[in-house]
Amino acid sequence: MNREIFKKSFVSAIFSMITIGALTLLTYKTEYGVFLIASFGSSMVLLYGYPESPFAQPKNIFFGHLLTSLVGIFVLNIFAFPLYITIPFAVGIGVGLMILLNVTHPPAGGNPIIVLMGSVSLDYIINPIIIGTLIILTFGIILNKFIMKKKYPN
């Protein structure tokens, strides 16, 4: 096994555990609300495994999650169609807007599904989306830039 790949794999695993662990502790051990969503786990792959990727940059992580979650909430509250219609519609609109606005973050493509299946409220935008992504980005910058000495963000 290539030594560099092993190191990258190990560091990505540890940093992902730290970041998701912090969000999990905030979610389950405090009264502050939900900080954790499934798509944040996928964000770890890019943030720690491929931080040089344009998809892993702070702008993309923050606005990708925000935009697709807003699309999901909009579709949830405006369209009274079954989930088998609203979910693909919301995902398609979210993906299209991320690409159009140059804030593509692939894990965020799943957010409309989470929003629609969970019938979340507008509060979801504040917590977990905005606060959760800011926590993720804080960890990402500290761990990538200051501990690993990588040029992050690019």
Helix content: over 70%
Shape: globular
> What structural class should be given to the helix and strand makeup?
mainly alpha
Catalogue the unreliable spans. Answer: none
Describe this structure as you would to a colleague.
The structure is a single chain. By secondary structure, the protein is mostly helical. It has one domain (3-147). The chain is 72% helix and 0% strand. The protein has 6 helices and no strands. Helix 3 (58-78) runs antiparallel to helix 4 (83-100), helix 3 packs parallel to helix 5 and helix 3 (58-78) packs antiparallel against helix 6 (123-147). The protein is globular, with a radius of gyration of 16 Å. The model has no long low-confidence stretch (mean pLDDT 97).
